[in-house]
């Protein structure tokens, strides 16, 4: 088995504009996804808005610069994730089809599991 | 056994390379579970054949000989490295690491479909799918693949390496898709083969109009798919389309290498054997389901069966495009339909259909729209406008032979 991180990208503006009905629908879809994934879903959550992010970057002279905001400013931002366990990419992608977004999309990234 | 001529055995090895590469590689991947290692072993097996066959004679089953040699080599290497699996194995379903006995097994399972579906996996970029197909299914070297697509060799090498890394790193499985996803996956494979064919049939840039190497590879691949998936209507349609289009190859390029368009082609030079085979396949494919390839092939068949350009059944062509627009709504199809309308119902009717597509962004840089417009305007006697249209087409065309053809038409106006 392998692990895949499903990164959910959406527009925060679209979320802010969504009414209760739309939000409820997405929640129902998440529930449906979680039911399908079952034990293959190792966990997942929504993230606080990108504006709450803090980025740390090594500055090349031994120091670290700490800045407000996400690494890359884009219209669609990382808004949540699932960590899945799947046999292969086909299975992971099939599961990821069910992860809802408000017009955004999801990215499936294989996790390189490191044994610390 | 009499010793065969060196030239004969070299030809036999080349023939086995063309026919058996995919089979040998697919069977070897089962042992190595690693594409790179399998490729290495298969290359060595072919090299071994070049020395062994002149001495021992060409084996009765070259594919089995090469498979045995490649698998033996793979087992040697795996034993030497003391690892049955590399760090990131390809996902070989029900994979058993073959023991020494298995190598000799005469009934090697035909794993070519697994290899096909891995090369044409939808999670790979299309250009990577095409490159892997030429590399792994046709056995072309990276340099040859680079030449085929007119890109520098390091660029192609990076593209292939990246695709292979994704196969291993993201665990793209080495298996046949389930029945449910099969039709969609087969269509993806057909697209790769079709793209290969069209790239060769109408080379987008360069000096030659037809890249025979690519066209031949695409036909070989379509035949292989047909053998592996004999009941698939998309595959039957694809092979039919390739045969019926390629049947005109000899008449399509003139004595000086210039492009000869359909109306002027010498139809006695068309390949009747290919046409007959193609028409049989079209019938079969259309009976099952009028797929995109089957309909395109049916259009080609109408042309191939017409005794002359004037006697083409243009209403039939329009009817086929009407169906095609439904299964494959694309501006290019609509453009071809407009051209057919121009022949079936006159240039004014064709122009009306064509001008509906005037703002289609997908056709903005497509030279054939300007060519078609020029032709219709020329037939309507609107010479000045025709000249503008041909001029626009000339600006958009990079193939030298097609440019020359356009320049001639401009001069003749």
Automatic annotation (TrEMBL), chain A:
Which InterPro entries is this protein grouped with?
Answer: Dimeric_a/b-barrel, YCII
Q: Where is the YCII-related domain?
A: 3-112
Q: Where is this region: Disordered?
A: 35-67
**What Pfam families does the record tag this protein with?**
YCII
Would you identify the family this protein belongs to, as annotated? Belongs to the YciI family.
State the name under which the record lists this protein.
YCII-related domain-containing protein
What organism is recorded for this protein? Motilibacter rhizosphaerae
Lineage start: Bacteria, Bacillati, Actinomycetota, Actinomycetes, Motilibacterales
TrEMBL record, chain B:
Keywords tagged on the record: Sigma factor, Transcription, Transcription regulation
* Keyword Transcription regulation among UniProt keywords: yes
InterPro entries per the record?
A: DUF6596, RNA_pol_sigma-70_dom, RNA_pol_sigma70_r2, RNA_pol_sigma70_r4_t2, RNA_pol_sigma_r2, RNA_pol_sigma_r3/r4-like, TPR-like_helical_dom_sf, WH-like_DNA-bd_sf
In this protein, which residues make up the domain named DUF6596? 185-285
Q: Which GO terms describe its biological process?
A: DNA-templated transcription initiation
Xref: Pfam families: DUF6596 (PF20239), Sigma70_r2 (PF04542), Sigma70_r4_2 (PF08281)
Which SUPFAM superfamilies would you find in this protein's record? Sigma2 domain of RNA polymerase sigma factors, Sigma3 and sigma4 domains of RNA polymerase sigma factors
Domain RNA polymerase sigma factor 70 region 4 type: from-to ranges: 117-167
Q: Which GO terms describe its molecular function?
A: DNA binding; sigma factor activity
* Domain RNA polymerase sigma-70 region span(s) in chain numbering: 23-82
Q: Which residues cross the membrane?
A: none
By sequence similarity, the record places it as follows: Belongs to the sigma-70 factor family. ECF subfamily.
Which protein, by its recorded name, is this? RNA polymerase ECF family sigma subunit
List the lineage, top down: Bacteria, Bacillati, Actinomycetota, Actinomycetes, Motilibacterales
């Amino acid at each position: 088995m392998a692990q895949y991180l499903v990164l959910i990208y959406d527009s925060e503006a679209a979320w802010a504009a969504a009414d209760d009905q739309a939000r409820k629908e997405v929640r129902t879809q998440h529930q449906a996804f979680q039911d399908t994934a079952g034990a293959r879903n190792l966990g997942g959550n929504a993230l606080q808005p990108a504006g709450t992010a803090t980025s740390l970057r090594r500055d090349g002279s031994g120091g670290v610069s700490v800045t407000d905001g996400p690494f890359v400013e884009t219209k669609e931002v990382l808004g949540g994730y699932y960590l899945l366990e799947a046999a292969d990419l086909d299975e992971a992608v099939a599961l990821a089809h069910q992860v809802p977004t408000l017009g955004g999309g999801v990215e499936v990234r294989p996790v390189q599991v490191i044994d610390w | 056994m009499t010793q065969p001529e060196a030239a004969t055995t070299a030809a036999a090895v080349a023939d086995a390379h063309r026919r058996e590469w995919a089979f040998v590689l697919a069977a070897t991947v089962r042992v190595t579970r690693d594409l790179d290692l399998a490729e290495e072993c298969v290359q060595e097996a072919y090299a071994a054949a070049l020395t062994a066959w002149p001495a021992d004679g060409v084996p009765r089953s070259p594919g089995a000989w090469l498979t045995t040699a490649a698998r033996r080599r793979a087992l040697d290497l795996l034993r030497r490295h003391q690892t049955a699996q590399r760090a990131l194995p390809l996902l070989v379903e029900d994979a058993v690491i073959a023991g020494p006995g298995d190598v000799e097994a005469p009934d090697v399972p035909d794993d070519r479909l697994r290899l096909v579906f891995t090369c044409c996996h939808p999670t790979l970029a299309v250009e990577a799918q095409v490159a892997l197909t030429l590399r792994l299914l046709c056995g072309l070297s990276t340099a040859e693949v680079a030449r085929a697509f007119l890109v520098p060799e390091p660029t192609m090498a990076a593209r292939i390496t990246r695709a292979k890394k994704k196969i291993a790193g993201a665990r793209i499985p080495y298996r046949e898709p389930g029945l449910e996803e099969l039709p969609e996956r087969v269509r993806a494979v057909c697209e790769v083969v079709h793209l290969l064919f069209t790239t060769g049939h109408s080379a987008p840039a360069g000096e030659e109009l037809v890249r025979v190497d690519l066209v031949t590879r695409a036909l070989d691949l379509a035949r292989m798919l047909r053998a592996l998936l004999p009941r698939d209507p998309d595959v039957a349609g694809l092979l039919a389309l390739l045969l019926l289009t390629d049947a005109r190859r000899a008449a399509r390029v003139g004595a000086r290498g210039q492009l000869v368009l359909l109306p002027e082609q010498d139809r006695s030079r068309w390949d009747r054997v290919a046409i007959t085979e193609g028409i049989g396949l079209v019938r079969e494919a259309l009976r099952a389901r009028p797929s995109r390839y089957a309909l395109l092939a049916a259009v080609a068949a109408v042309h191939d069966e017409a005794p002359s350009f004037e006697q083409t059944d243009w209403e039939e062509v329009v009817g086929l495009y009407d169906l095609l627009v439904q299964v494959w709504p694309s501006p290019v199809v609509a453009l071809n339909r407009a051209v057919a309308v121009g022949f079936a119902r006159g240039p004014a009717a064709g122009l009306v259909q064509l001008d509906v597509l005037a703002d289609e962004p997908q056709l903005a840089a497509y030279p054939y729209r300007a060519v078609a417009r020029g032709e219709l305007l020329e037939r309507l006697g609107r010479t000045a406008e025709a000249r503008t249209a041909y001029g626009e087409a000339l600006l958009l065309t990079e193939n030298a032979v097609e440019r020359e053809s356009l320049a001639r038409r401009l001069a003749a106006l």
